[in-house]
Write a structure and sequence with these properties.
mainly beta; six-stranded antiparallel β-sheet; five-stranded antiparallel β-sheet; globular; disordered N terminus
C-alpha cells in the first residue's frame, strides 16, 4: 500500500451523508458544504449553491483562496477582475486569489459548485469555516422562506477580515 507523508494511519475514505453536511441560507440562497476543508487536509472545500433569479454575492476577493465555479444548472453572470462572463450549465470559471469577483443568477434558478482551494502551505480554506461558524444553519436543505433571517450584508462585510476576504463593491444585478 502506498502512503503519503502527510497521511495518518487513522485516515480513511469517508462517506458524507447529506444530513451530516452543513447547510446555511446565504443572501437569499442555499449554500451546502459538501466537502469541508478538514477532510481534505485543508487543501480545498466544496460548496454547492442553489438560488433563484437574483441570488448574488457582492464583489469581493479572497486573500489566499483560489475559487472555481462549476455551473451545474441554470445561468450565472460571473464578474472577475472587472470583466463580465455568461456562465451556463457545464461552464467552469477559475478566479485566482486576490481577484475581485462576484456572481448573480440570471436564469429562473441555478445550481453550482464553488471549490475553494488553498495552494499556499500552511493556509486553510476559510469559506466553509465562515459559513459553519457565522451563519445560522438552515433547518432544511431548501431555499430560504421570506421570513428567514440570516446575516445582513453589513454583517458579512464586517466579518471579512476574520476569514481573509474583502468586500469590494455592490453585487452584480440580473
Amino acid at each position: 500500500m502506498m502512503t503519503f507523508p502527510d497521511m495518518t494511519r487513522e485516515e480513511t475514505g469517508r462517506l458524507i451523508p447529506e444530513a451530516a453536511q452543513t447547510a446555511v441560507w446565504l443572501l437569499g440562497g442555499l449554500a451546502q458544504i459538501r466537502v469541508p476543508g478538514e477532510l481534505t487536509r485543508n487543501s480545498f472545500t466544496v460548496v454547492q449553491h442553489t438560488g433563484n433569479r437574483g441570488y448574488t454575492t457582492p464583489l469581493h476577493s479572497h486573500d489566499y483562496e483560489d475559487e472555481f465555479f462549476l455551473v451545474l444548472d441554470g445561468t450565472l453572470r460571473l464578474v472577475c477582475d472587472g470583466r463580465e462572463h455568461l456562465a451556463q450549465a457545464g461552464t467552469t470559471m477559475f478566479v485566482p486569489r486576490t481577484f475581485t469577483h462576484g456572481f448573480v443568477t440570471l436564469s429562473e434558478s441555478a445550481r453550482f459548485l464553488t471549490i475553494h482551494s488553498t495552494p499556499q502551505p500552511g493556509r486553510k480554506p476559510q469559506f466553509d469555516l465562515f459559513l459553519d461558524a457565522e451563519i445560522p444553519h438552515a433547518p432544511a436543505a431548501t431555499l430560504p422562506t421570506e421570513e428567514a433571517g440570516g446575516p445582513t450584508l453589513d454583517r458579512i462585510i464586517e466579518l471579512g477580515p476574520a476569514y481573509a476576504y474583502r468586500y469590494a463593491g455592490p453585487a452584480p444585478t440580473p
